[in-house]
Amino acid sequence: MIPNKVQLITYADSLGGDLKKLDAVLDEYFPGVFGAIHILPPFPSSGDRGFAPLSYFEIEPSFGIWEDMAALGKKYPLLLDVMVNHISRSSNQFQDFLKKGRASKYAGFFLTMDKLWPGGKPKLEDIKKVYLRRPVPYSTYTLADGSIENVWTTFGNTDPSEQIDLDVSAPEVREWFQEIFAFFARNGISMVRLDAVGYVIKKMGTSCFLTDPEFYEFLDWIKTTAANAGITLLCEVHAETAIQKKLSDAGYWILNFSQNYTYNRNSLSYKELSSFGVGIIFSPTNCLNLL
Fold this sequence. Notes:
By secondary structure, the protein is of the alpha/beta class.
């Protein structure tokens, strides 16, 4: 359960410089203020300020170690992100795929074009329907043997992308998620935000964003999986209020980000707290409002 209290959202190095110093800052300057702490990705990452993770089983060394995180978890409910849509190009999984190609034990982790189109050839009419975050939703990689693979990449500012999409329907990926949740639970994590979860289903002929019914089927599976480890999930979906309400009505916790940012910005700028209050009042239930 997510506590109905003021929560702090911070990077591991934003208050003090690392996890131990964050703990000390909270003890000294904010005793009893926060009901929970959301630490933005503290994992080794190759880009996007932590949102291109190499591994969830390590902490970026400059931030500390997992024991530091567990120490915080003894004082506060902790929330971490899982980038459920993608992983870093520099991760062990993708590097193994680049070395061994389809013979890699991680080959099933990724969305090669043959999983999406017969013969592996992208169709322009399908791509035109996709909610694009890049000029095209895939990147071309050269394997160790010189062969070429096109792999789905929703995000990324480089070409080829630094963020490689995961095939969330693959048994090996689902087993990996289970391992992550179990590891988090052992280290004091009680909440997880599913970053970019709206993009996880790739279905040709659709926008590949919030694709129904497969999207909700995946949410049902991962919610149950997380609950089995004692973890509550929070969906990060940038969409209109009707979509947020649908998720909330279905029993999912959501992050109310863009709407209340507008209300909060206006309130802080013009001291018109009424507009901010309206945003809170009409927010869906099961909602964490980001201010």
